[in-house]
Design a protein that fits this description.
Helix 12 runs parallel beside helix 14 and helix 13 packs across helix 14. The longest helix is centred in the last third of the chain and has 19 residues. The protein is α/β, with parallel strands linked by helices. The protein is 58% helix and 8% strand. It is flat. The protein folds into 3 domains: 59 residues, no CATH class; 157 residues, P-loop containing nucleotide triphosphate hydrolases (Rossmann fold); 49 residues.
Length: 290
Amino acid sequence: MVTTLFKEKVRDAVLSARENYGGSDSDFAKSIGTSAPIYSRLKKGELERILSDTQWLTIGRMMDVQLKESKWKVARTVVYEQIEDSLKFCQQNNTSMILVDDCGIGKTFCVKHVIRTMKNAFYLDCSQAKTKQQFIRTLAKTVGVESTGKYIDVKSNLKYFLNLIEMPIIALDEAGDLDYNAFLELKELWNATSGSCAWYMIGADGLRAKIRRGIQNEKVGYREIFSRFSDEFISVTPTGKHERDQFYMQLLEDVAGVNVSDKTAVRQFVTKAMKKEGTLRYLETLIKMN
């Protein structure tokens, strides 16, 4: 049974998300999987008998609504600031970039957090939409375009919409999980929205290897995609061992500093994390265990 408290939190999250959405109420309603009349009632404060429990849960999941308030605080690390700067640069200049960096430095966490603060900014986890059909239909739904019906119509409407709204940016996380045909669809979308929509790919070594291998083997599409995404892989983590160690030490200290109440224990957590894996996931586990 979905509680009234949960419904209130979902409604608040929906209304907050609407502020950064440049399309119509009808388009926004589609992006959260409902209709304009239902959204209108929700906006007026109605909660009862307008959505099924499953719909409330689905929208809550999309909005990352939690009944238990997370105690994990956002730290403005060098990773956060670089991602924020890159996303804003891409949006303001209608350009595209590829961020490829180590696992466990907070890429996904930072991208999601920054995207929520930007207008007409959309996030897609490509590991959940690997095929071309899944990719196009999921992206269409994410931005508020009807995702059912003929595939060609969905794709055409998606391209039209991205050219219609003001300065959209699409963040494609786990982009290395997209299959080949989905990559080709990405090239088509870029071509169709050039000068109107910014794109930002995020991945780890697998994404870089996939693109390089595709270029080396002269596979259609990879050279073109790389060119359209500024012809380079950007990263935050230094390559030299000393600089790399210093980077991870500072990263862990910054995150631990805002999430550990006993400040005298920060260095202890950082040292343990550095000895093990040096990732923020491991640091978070250590802190929550204590």
